[in-house]
Write a structure and sequence with these properties.
The mean pLDDT is 77. The protein has one domain. By secondary structure, it is an all-alpha fold. It is elongated. The N and C termini lie far apart (50 Å). It is 78% helix and 0% strand. Helix 1 packs antiparallel against helix 2, helix 1 runs parallel beside helix 3 and helix 2 runs antiparallel to helix 3. The chain is built from four helices and no strands. The longest helix is centred in the N-terminal third of the chain and has 25 residues.
Length: 102
């Protein structure tokens, strides 16, 4: 395996983990469909640009780029599904922050 390929995989993994964690944290905010979703969209767009740049310079493979895009689209769409499914504000805050739904 080439050194660039390892660096690309590590970079994509770090970006994916950070974006998924930020998405989970923002999904618990009561008014997160305002400015938070615009910021989240910006984060995802920057991540897409970084992934596209890594693919264009052949640091990552085409299949890894498609997996990366699938994870980005899935987590971004699940943010809306989770937020609108029920009162996710109390559930996520009690789960992640320990506020017991306050």
């Amino acid at each position: 395996m080439m050194k660039e390929n390892k660096i690309g995989k590590i970079t994509i993994a770090i970006i994916t983990i950070v974006l998924v964690l930020v998405t989970i944290r923002l999904s618990g905010h009561k008014h997160s469909l305002g400015i938070f979703v615009l910021a989240l969209f910006g984060f995802y767009f920057v991540a897409f640009l970084i992934g596209a740049l890594l693919k264009a310079t052949e640091v990552i493979s085409k299949s890894l780029f498609y997996v990366f895009l699938a994870v980005l689209l899935t987590s971004f769409s699940l943010f809306f599904v989770y937020h609108h499914s029920y009162d996710s504000h109390n559930e996520t805050r009690s789960l992640l922050y320990g506020f017991n739904g306050e």
